[in-house]
């Protein structure tokens, strides 16, 4: 027994020594940064998909407020019995700019008559919040009064007010405000038409007063706030495939999205009929959230504006229409005029419009995208025409160009070669791939040409199922993204921007999954992927610091991934580490530096042993960062990393 005990003891000691020797050690070259991190490194990709704008961040609660949908009364219901023929008529007046339709009300006798609007999958109404109802109207036979009321799903009235339609031969706005005494995410609006008379009405609208920054008829505060919390370096807008449109007639045209709201021309949203499994025939773009509002939101949250313009090509997955090269001048002029709108003096045509809209100061546009996920020689021809004019007139504006729909293959290789020949400033690469691709691609940019174009990881998302959905924003997907992003950060001298896509998804109105942030009519929450990118964007640093294991970058050896940066403003070394193992990993980091660690540090960890776990409206913080204080001293940092975890450690140095 004694001999057996001794043997067991020896084996235990040997095993312990072996485990100690197997602890991975990483060298951190703090005094030898390999490059600079772009100030706009981590940003936001915005597209009006999944009710992202109308029915989402644009706080309008009335659907089809101007009767411009293809079915004029879509979203509306007539209230009352035995309504005489000709009482409610849709009039189409081609003399009205951008908004031809209006509703004629001919009520010659006093009977029960009303309209009900269902909102965007209902209306989100909050208790104790003031709401503003407004409309455009004109009447030569006064006598009508509108009784406006908000109801919950049980038809309980939550708030109401009256608005008299006084005599006016020209269009004017009428407005009333009232406070809600209850809360519902499935509310509706009733407009009872009382009295007798004749009136023409349009732009029937309802907004909460607690919009972002209190702007009348503005943006939904909680949805903008969750973006501001990311401290994004840029906002790419307005998409996405809506830039192209299913055909050129329905492409996104920025000039139709600025100026007075009532003059902006509505078009069908290309996601309306895109997916048979999620048809949304009531999905249109009102452009209440237009280019001016995009620029303003960018400024509000400290992000660089990055508009993307149509290059003369419709979506190649749909019609694939192209405008002839000899008719491309209009498209190029749109780009020149947009630069003037953003940066022009107030005495210029488009600079004056910006000033008239309330922003005489310039928006300081620095970059512009030409085309979205376009490909082939037809794209290169049109891009070259844009480049020649833009660089001759605005060499200060960086041009961002598409590398197609994926990160590899014949289409990608062709575009990558041609874009480099054109000396395009920034190449926009997209990847929707499974977690295994993201884990295996952490070294993707290690060997990219440091003297060639910069890279924009313009649309990335780890998809646990293909084709599209329903994809859950699981921890499995987010952790694979965290690993991949170590490679983007390590190569921040080449990859200067990155953004997850799509941004928003409405739980009752989505077409595409997964999405970074999910909402319903009252709530908003960030997915595990949101928390991962937020940790990168709020800890981006200024300098790339090499971190090596056995003189190699840490790109998946033993399922470990790492990157480090230094922040000149806070004097912190920021370590990001992914443990993609089912067990705890103990590691040591050897600092190659004359600087000293300054004691207390902050450790932030996201982890879950359940790789299928995800956040939801019911449990919005199931997966979230956990922060703790830690202390280090000397030149070696020893730390333990939980299974399936992403960890950020902020270490003060002096």
Layout of SSEs?
Layout: H1 2-21, E1 25-28, E2 35-36, E3 44-45, E4 76-79, E5 88-92, E6 101-107, E7 114-117, E8 123-125, E9 130-141, E10 144-151, E11 157-164, E12 168-179, E13 184-195, E14 197-208, H2 221-228, E15 234-237, E16 267-268, E17 284-285, H3 291-300, E18 304-309, H4 329-343, H5 349-356, E19 367-370, H6 377-393, E20 398-402, H7 410-421, E21 426-433, H8 435-440, E22 454-462, H9 475-490, E23 495-500, E24 504-506, E25 517-519, E26 524-526, H10 528-537, E27 543-545, E28 547-549, E29 552-553, E30 560-567, E31 572-579, E32 585-591, E33 600-607, E34 626-631, E35 636-641, E36 645-652
Parallel strand pairs: 1-32, 3-15, 15-18, 18-19, 19-20, 20-21, 21-22, 22-23, 24-25
Antiparallel strand pairs: 1-28, 2-27, 4-7, 5-6, 6-14, 7-13, 8-13, 9-12, 9-14, 10-11, 10-13, 16-17, 25-26, 27-30, 28-29, 30-31, 31-36, 32-35, 33-34, 33-36
Helix pairs in contact: 4-5, 9-10
Family: Belongs to the glycosyl hydrolase 51 family.
Domain Alpha-L-arabinofuranosidase C-terminal: 458-645
EC number: 3.2.1.55
Kindly describe this structure.
- The protein has 654 residues and is α+β, with helices and mostly antiparallel strands.
- Helices cover 19% and strands 32% of the residues.
- It has 10 helices and 36 strands.
- Helix 8 (435-440) links the parallel strand 21 (426-433) and strand 22 (454-462).
- The longest helix has 20 residues, at 2-21.
- The protein is globular, with a radius of gyration of 28 Å.
């Amino acid at each position: 027994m004694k001999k057996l005990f001794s043997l067991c003891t020896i084996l235990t000691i040997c095993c312990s020594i072996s485990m100690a020797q197997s602890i991975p050690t990483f060298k951190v070259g703090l005094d030898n940064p390999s490059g600079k991190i772009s100030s706009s490194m981590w940003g936001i990709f915005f597209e009006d998909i999944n009710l992202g704008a109308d029915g989402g961040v644009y706080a309008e609660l009335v659907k089809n407020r101007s009767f411009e949908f293809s079915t004029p009364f879509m979203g509306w219901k007539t209230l009352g019995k035995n309504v005489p023929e000709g009482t409610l008529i849709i009039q189409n007046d081609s003399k009205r700019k951008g908004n031809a339709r209006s509703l004629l009300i001919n009520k010659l006798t006093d009977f029960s008559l009303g309209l009900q609007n269902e909102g965007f999958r209902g209306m989100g109404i909050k208790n104790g919040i003031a709401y503003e109802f407004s409309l455009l109207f004109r009447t030569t036979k006064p006598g009508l009064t509108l009784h406006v009321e908000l109801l919950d799903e049980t038809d309980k009235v939550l708030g109401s007010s009256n608005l008299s339609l006084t005599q006016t031969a020209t269009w004017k706005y009428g407005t009333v405000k009232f406070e809600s005494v209850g809360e519902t995410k499935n509310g509706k609006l009733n407009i009872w038409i009382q009295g007798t008379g004749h009136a023409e009405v349009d732009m029937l609208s309802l907004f909460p007063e607690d919009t972002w920054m209190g702007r009348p008829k503005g943006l939904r505060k909680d949805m903008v706030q969750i973006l501001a919390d990311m401290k994004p370096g840029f906002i790419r807008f307005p998409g996405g495939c809506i830039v192209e449109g299913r055909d050129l007639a329905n492409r996104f045209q920025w000039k139709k999205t600025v100026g007075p709201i009532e003059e902006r021309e509505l078009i069908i949203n290309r996601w309306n009929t895109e997916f048979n499994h999620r048809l949304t025939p009531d999905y249109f773009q009102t452009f209440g959230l237009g280019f001016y509002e995009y620029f303003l939101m960018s400024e509000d949250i400290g992000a660089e504006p990055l508009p993307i313009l149509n290059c003369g090509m419709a979506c190649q997955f749909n019609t694939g229409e192209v405008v002839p090269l000899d008719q491309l001048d209009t498209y190029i002029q749109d780009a020149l005029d947009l630069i003037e709108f953003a940066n022009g003096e107030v005495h210029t045509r488009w600079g004056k419009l910006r000033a008239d809209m309330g922003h005489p100061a310039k928006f300081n546009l620095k970059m512009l995208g030409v085309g979205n996920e376009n490909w082939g020689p037809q794209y290169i021809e049109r891009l070259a025409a844009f480049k020649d004019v833009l660089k001759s007139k605005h060499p200060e504006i960086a041009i961002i160009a598409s590398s197609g729909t994926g990160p590899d293959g014949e289409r990608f290789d062709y575009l990558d070669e041609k874009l480099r020949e054109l000396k395009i400033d920034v190449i926009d690469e997209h990847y929707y791939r499974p977690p295994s691709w993201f884990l295996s691609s952490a070294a993707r940019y290690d060997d990219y040409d440091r003297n060639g174009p910069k890279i924009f990881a313009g649309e990335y998302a780890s998809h646990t199922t293909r084709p599209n959905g329903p994809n859950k924003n699981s921890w499995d997907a987010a952790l694979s993204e965290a690993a991949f992003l170590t490679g983007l950060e390590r190569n921040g001298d080449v990859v200067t921007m990155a953004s997850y896509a799509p941004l928003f998804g409405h739980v009752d109105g989505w077409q595409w999954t997964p999405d970074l942030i999910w909402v319903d009519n009252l709530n908003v929450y960030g997915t595990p992927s949101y928390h991962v990118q937020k940790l990168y964007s709020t800890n981006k640093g200024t300098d790339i610091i090499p971190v090596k294991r056995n003189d190699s970058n840490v790109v998946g050896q033993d399922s470990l991934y790492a990157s480090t940066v230094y922040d000149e403003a806070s004097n912190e070394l920021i370590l990001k580490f992914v443990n993609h193992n089912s067990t705890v990993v103990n590691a040591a980091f050897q600092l190659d530096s004359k600087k000293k660690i300054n004691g207390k540090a902050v450790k932030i960890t996201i982890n879950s042993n359940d790789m299928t776990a995800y956040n939801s409206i019911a449990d919005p913080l199931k997966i979230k960062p956990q922060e703790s204080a830690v202390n280090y001293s000397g030149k070696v940092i020893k730390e333990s990393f939980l299974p399936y975890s992403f960890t950020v450690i902020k270490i003060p140095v002096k």
